[in-house]
Amino acid sequence: MTALSGKVQTVLGLLDPAQLGRTMTHEHLTMTFECCYVPPPTGDDAVSEAPFEMRNMHWLRQNPYSSQENLLLCQEIEAVRDELQYYRQAGGGTIVENTTTGITRNLPSLKQLAKDTGVNIIAGAGFYVDVTHSDETRKMTVEKLTDIIVSEILHGADGTDIRCGVIGEIGTSWPITESEKRVLRATAHAQSQLGCPVIIHPGRHTTAPTEVVRILQEAGGDISKTVMSHLDRTIFDYGELLEFAKLGSYLEYDLFGTEMLDYPFDLEIDMPSDSQRVQALSFLVKEGYEDRIVIAHDIHTKNRLTKYGGHGYSHILKNIAPKMLTRGISQGQVDKILIHNPKHWLTFK
Ligand SMILES: CC(=O)NCCS(=O)(=O)O
């Protein structure tokens, strides 16, 4: 038991879990993603550097990581404020903001957005993938990394007194690097001290989520209080999905709204459509996992904002939840996925 037990920690302070309402468990409101820039396809240099215009939006949807401009979500605070107001009107209550060290977390902006819009915002502690680790981070012991993560939750992060309410998204690559393994062990140690929620970004390989769970478990982590993100681009075979589900983490489908033919980080991967994502949720519900599913859009580039013709933070509430009802998922099960499961995950033990 700690002073946080039974509560959820937002950037504005502690909250009774019943106040969360509908929750997107994996979004970004302000961040940079330059670490993942991908050069444009041959012949597309001009469009990749062109100003944002309506006629370029389809290209950006297909090549979101090949425009430096598109990777600077941090420049869109006003648009994000408007989006959050719309999210509230659409019935949204809470957003888990997964920006960790390495992709430009901005806690003062998150606090201001929460004040301005009334949306509960929960900030993430810890470190993103290895390519963003500083030399200093790479040299840290597990104990030092644990101290930093614990302090980001108990006292505040980035030189502020604004406290994180979840560990993650903790970034891992494939194969998982030594520095990432130390961060994972520190995550598990911090979680066992604090009883807090954890969320993981797995590497792009079907066995990556299982390997992360193994490392966390060996270090004493609580898998039942851990979300495995990005399953929609990681595990495709339903048999493998069930094997992973048995390990007991929350199962997150968080790329709703992302539709692209060539997934540039791994051209072997066919990014599913939203319809296929809903089919996967329906399958998991039928297999008895309705208490373990959470969903989100993981907005991390500009083109996905409604300002630029994107789906925005309300797509799930406006379009996906109604679609789920037509595919064998009941209203009660939708409420579990959007309200009850996030609430249980986010409540400190
Ligand atoms: C911000 C972030 O890590 N998004 C995930 C993008 S990915 O293509 O699913 O790895």
For the record, give the distance between the C-alpha atoms at the N and C termini, rounded to a whole number.
7 Å
Helix content: 25-40%
Gyration radius, to the nearest Å?
19 Å
The coarse overall form would be globular
Level-1 CATH class name: Alpha Beta
Order of SSEs, N→C? EEEHHHEHEHHEHEHEHEHEHH
Percentage of residues in DSSP E strands: 5-15%
* Order of the strands making up the biggest sheet: 3-4-5-6-7-8-9-10
Low-confidence stretches: none
CATH architect. name = Alpha-Beta Barrel
Structural category is alpha/beta
Largest sheet: 8 strands, parallel
**Each distinct ligand:** ligand LF4KAAF6
Beta strands, count: 10
Q: Tell me the name of the CATH homologous superfamily.
A: Metal-dependent hydrolases
Count the domains. 1
Named CATH topology: TIM Barrel
Count of runs of 4 or more consecutive helical residues: 12
- Mean pLDDT across every amino acid position: 98
Catalytic activity: N-acetyl-L-methionine + H2O = L-methionine + acetate; N-acetyl-L-valine + H2O = L-valine + acetate; N-acetyl-L-leucine + H2O = L-leucine + acetate; N-acetyl-L-isoleucine + H2O = L-isoleucine + acetate
Keywords: Hydrolase, Metal-binding
Cofactor: a divalent metal cation
GO molecular function: hydrolase activity; zinc ion binding
